[in-house]
């Protein structure tokens, strides 16, 4: 999966004042991603607010992005949930679309149910069996309430080495991430498949890369594509440090609240999110504006 190394953007979904998808803004956003600094795009993930979109809206957004990108970058589609049967049914229903338009799916750990490690293992085995394309596991304990442990990750991979392409690791636990990198670097018993370990945290991309990681799926690159390309591809720790405060601000009131405030200040989108999220507070907006000014210096 060489095409999914490097920098991927977890794309936001722009909305207008009436709560509809803003396709003109989406065009402007995609244009910023098609300038040579992004290696692939993640469509309708957490940052894309897929959880608050209808099936029809998601279908239209998928179609629009596929048509607009027109093969210029690989696409990864977020497909996950806390009902294993429903996730598998969705994957089977999209079989032809997935095969035609996407390099992989990104599938989050089941949330709310709080399954144990055996439940996570069985869930992802079912997802792997149902998906016609490679699967990137997505571990984000802060959102799901469960942590996909390294031994479970490797167990899933070894059960389906031809389908499990890697993991987006957003636990923030560098030691855990290093354990996965080390364990997955061993040859699979069935001798198939490279395993990508992708940082899900903008603030530790260099550390993950230095440990042998494959890249970053970034929120910040929605607005700062060129700089985050250098952070990932050049392992530019000084540039990463320069963005540390901005990254903190992006997540201070939840994601994608912060990044939408940045994009609105840049004139790319209107600053609307869907409930239960609300737009950035005036205080956060001002902090982001000040920090953006510092980044330009």
Describe the structure.
- With 297 residues, the protein is an alpha/beta fold.
- It has one domain (2-235): Aldolase class I (TIM Barrel, Alpha-Beta Barrel).
- It is 45% helix and 12% strand.
- The chain is built from 14 helices and 8 strands.
- The protein has helices spanning 23-33, 55-69, 84-93, 95-101, 117-130, 141-144, 150-159, 174-184, 205-210, 225-233, 237-242, 244-250, 257-265, 282-296; strands spanning 6-10, 40-43, 75-78, 104-108, 135-139, 164-169, 196-199, 215-218.
- Strands 1-2-3-4-5-6-7-8 form an 8-stranded parallel beta barrel, surrounded by 5 helices.
- Strand 4 (104-108), helix 5 and strand 5 (135-139) form a beta-alpha-beta unit.
- Helix 3 (84-93) runs parallel beside helix 5 and helix 7 (150-159) runs parallel beside helix 8 (174-184).
- The longest helix is centred in the first third of the chain and has 15 residues, at 55-69.
- The mean pLDDT is 96.
Short précis:
With 297 residues, this protein is of the alpha/beta class. It has helices spanning 23-33, 55-69, 84-93, 95-101, 117-130, 141-144, 150-159, 174-184, 205-210, 225-233, 237-242, 244-250, 257-265, 282-296; strands spanning 6-10, 40-43, 75-78, 104-108, 135-139, 164-169, 196-199, 215-218. The protein has one domain (2-235): Aldolase class I (TIM Barrel).
Topology at a glance:
Elements (H helix, E strand, L loop, with lengths): L5 E5 L12 H11 L6 E4 L11 H15 L5 E4 L5 H10 L1 H7 L2 E5 L8 H14 L4 E5 L1 H4 L5 H10 L4 E6 L4 H11 L11 E4 L5 H6 L4 E4 L6 H9 L3 H6 L1 H7 L6 H9 L16 H15 L1
Parallel strand pairs: 1-2, 1-8, 2-3, 3-4, 4-5, 5-6, 6-7, 7-8
Helix pairs in contact: 1-2, 3-5, 5-7, 7-8, 12-14, 13-14
